[in-house]
Amino acid sequence: MKLIKTYPKYLQKHIKFFYSVQASALENINSVHRRLPDGTLDVVFNLGAPVLFSSNGINFFEMPEVVLTGLHPDRSFLQYAGDVNLVGAVFQPGSAQLFVNDTLEQYKGCTANASQVFGNEVQLVYEQLKETVGEKEKHTLLEKFLLTCLKKKDEYYSSRISGVINQIHTLAGNIEMSTLYKDHFMSERTFRRKFNECVGMSPKLYSTIIRVKSFSKRYEQIRSSYTNVLNELGYTDQSHFNKEFQKIVGTNPTAYFSQLTRMGTEFIHLI
């Protein structure tokens, strides 16, 4: 299995990174893996075998060749039907609205054909990616396409919400909502409304996702007692942590990490 990650040359403000994931069907990755939410929207080009998606781990459907996906409020499930060859771009939280030309509230839990948003040109990019050798070159091609999709908008609140997001990440989600809107000079009502528009979910849900994801990244690397990790993230009550983890992941930490596949592990650390 191979994961290649590069960073944009022109769209650093709006794209977190580009990535390619490649794996052979022989690498025992066909089992279902549970993917943690990460609060971002991705555009993904599937250049390999079909990828199946499910929100409950039972009912699966085949994802489009080019899919706009993400902003899931809780766990989702992926299954790969053969060789994996994915090329994707991860939008910066708060920036995707500048490409889709809509508030991100409309894309919560999204798994949509990207041509519905970007038009038929996205299919041409798909064909060009299939003919391009080299992952860095594919990422460059994708960045050039996204440059043409960037819409000009009033970024007054976008920049403020970006500051909020940075603060949430700096504190690994361990922050009170009242602190966020006061620190960024917004009323509570405006803060919640603009955050939903720019990010696609409530600030409380986003912070909880970042906190659970931060725990998962740290714990996956040590795989021992997670008391210290909980302390680092400001959890003073283990039952409260278990409740948050169950809500976001759909199972308890012990069960999740015991069932974690290699592909699932890569996705924990991808974002």
Would you give an account of this structure?
With about 270 residues, this protein is α+β, with helices and mostly antiparallel strands. The model has no long low-confidence stretch (mean pLDDT about 90). It contains twelve helices and ten strands. It has a domain of about 150 residues: Sandwich (Jelly Rolls), CATH 2.60.120. It is globular, with a radius of gyration of 18 Å.
Short key terms for the protein model shown above:
271 residues, alpha+beta, Jelly Rolls, 6-stranded antiparallel beta sheet, 4-stranded antiparallel beta sheet, 12 helices, 45% helix, globular
Shape: globular
Low-confidence residue ranges: none
CATH superfamily of the domain at 2-149: Jelly Rolls
Q: H/E series, N to C?
A: EEEEEEEEEHEHHHHHHHHHHH
The computed structural class is alpha+beta
Radius of gyration: 18 Å
**In angstroms, what separates the terminal alpha carbons?**
17 Å
For the residues shown, what is the average pLDDT? 91
By CATH, the topology of the domain at 2-149 is: Jelly Rolls
Largest sheet: 6 strands, antiparallel
Strand arrangement within the widest β-sheet reads 1-2-9-4-7-10
Give the name of the CATH architecture of the domain at 2-149: Sandwich
Q: Which strand-content bin applies to the residues?
A: 15-25%
Query: Helix count, per DSSP?
Result: 12
Brief synopsis:
The protein is an alpha+beta fold.
Summarize the topology.
Blueprint: E1 2-6, E2 15-23, E3 33-35, E4 41-46, E5 51-54, E6 61-62, E7 66-70, E8 76-80, E9 84-91, H1 97-100, E10 110-113, H2 115-118, H3 121-131, H4 135-149, H5 156-170, H6 177-183, H7 188-199, H8 203-222, H9 227-232, H10 238-249, H11 253-258, H12 262-270
Antiparallel strand pairs: 1-2, 2-9, 3-8, 4-7, 4-9, 5-6, 5-8, 7-10
